Amino acid sequence: MDGLAPDGGLYLPDTISPLPEKFLKALPGLSFQELGFEIAKVWLGDEIKVSDLERLVWEAFPFDAPLETTGNDIYVLELFHGPTLAFKDFGARFMAQLVGYFVTESERELNILVATSGDTGSAVASGFHQVPGIRVVLLFPSGKISEIQRKQMTTLGGNIISLAIEGTFDDCQNLVKQAFADPTIRSKLRVTSANSINIARLLPQSFYYFRAAAQIPGRKATVFSVPSGNFGNLTAGLIARRMGLSVEHFIAATNVNDVVPQYLKTGVFKPRSSVQTVSNAMDVGNPSNFERMLDLYKNDFRKMSSEIYGAAFTDRETVNCVKCMYDETKYVLDPHGAVALLGLQKFKAGRSSDAAKFPGIFLETAHPAKFLESVQPAIGNRLDIPERLQSCLQRPERSITFRASFEEFRSFLLDLD
Ligand SMILES: *Cc1c(COP(=O)(O)O)cnc(C)c1O
Asked: Is it the case that residue 4 has pLDDT exceeding 80?
């Protein structure tokens, strides 16, 4: 329930032990939900009754993480088959199930406050929609997110309230921070956040690394290329490897916000303000999970840089990659997946033939229809919008517009009950 530890640090498991060899051997025969349940049992089996945990996993994931081949021993792990078409569904939906499970034990309604610049808000809203005992208050910067992203947040209704704030994403985040610090709000309402540093969002992301490897013929060690912003996704991969997944190499692929690839080259970590790019979910200048990566490597730079390869790409390279992939294979990438594919190609090109022959998997973190503005011109063609996205485009929108004023937001919250 607490995203941050009392000293301001991020939670990590004390120990991460390898899963039994029997489980690893059985992987190819397990569905995503079955293997997710087995892994969840390791983390949560002593906190949640096993039959309840199994139900939670199936509720959280009514979809799979399929692996498609694109030829030449390169595979794409599609992480956009959830309800909001981005990989954030994996973490947000699992966290929603856990919070819903524990909140029923207390009689007060839990209010989840989320400031969002786009994808996180819709995944959290969809995950918590109709979960009893929970209300979600989303704050988004009015006019600064895409139409599809806005509709995904404002058409759910019920226990989801969306506030269009006349300001920037930073204004939204400040309002939420002030609310958490306000003693009257804290005493009258139960409030918490669902931001991406919560360990409940991180752990379930390890499931799909196992699912990916299980779909590669012959149990070979693989190379994973991860398009990264806050590095939660890559950190989940490092945890999967500690749990016994056979990984030859990780690739930290970024847009020009490249503080981690720079660190992997120089050993110096220099956060800076973020720059806007076409892969906007990765526009992060001070990645919050970097401290978890350091901890997992016990601050051993040489070890980290020998196991993780960093690579960064410009918007021009990214859009060109979307175009080339479409021309060659008709597969449509989104800009984030394109950054990951570029990372994998660069890694393979720079290696001797021996190391280059490991199967490579790149993570496709969003459906291209979420980024019509950059994808359609790149492929020179129109994209079909998936049905689950279309249905929300037709429902009526409901949101309340607010100035970026804490006084107004505060009285709104205090009037909720
Ligand atoms: C959030 C996001 C990312 C970055 O993931 P991190 O875990 O923050 O590194 C990549 N792609 C998409 C589509 C995202 O929404």
From this structure: no
Q: Could you report the per-residue pLDDT of 106-142, keeping only the tens digit for each?
A: 677 899 999 887 778 899 999 999 888 899 999 998 9
Quick one: tokens of 196? 């991406």
Is 88 catalytic? The answer is: yes
Please check the confidence at residue 48 and state whether its pLDDT lies above 70.
Answer: yes
Tell me if 366 sits within 8 A of 389, measured CB to CB. Answer: no
Q: Which of 88, 151, 346, 370 is catalytic?
A: 88
pTM of the model: 0.92
Nearest CA to ligand 1 atom 15: 281
Go through the chain and tell me how many residues it has: 417
Nearest to 24 by CA among 238, 199, 202, 221: 221
CATH number for 62-86+202-379 (one of 3.60.60.10, 3.40.50.1100, 3.30.300.20, 3.30.410.40): it is 3.40.50.1100
Q: Where are the domains of the chain?
A: 32-57+88-198+394-416, 62-86+202-379
| pLDDT tens digits for range 353-407 | 766 678 999 999 999 998 998 999 999 999 998 988 888 888 899 999 999 999 9
Say if ligand 1 is within 6 A of residue 236 CB. no
Give the mutation target among 230, 231, 280 for probing the ligand 1 site: most ligand atoms within 8 A of CB.
230
Q: CA-based Rg of the chain, rounded to a whole angstrom?
A: 21
> What's the maximum distance between 2 C-alpha atoms anywhere in the chain?
65
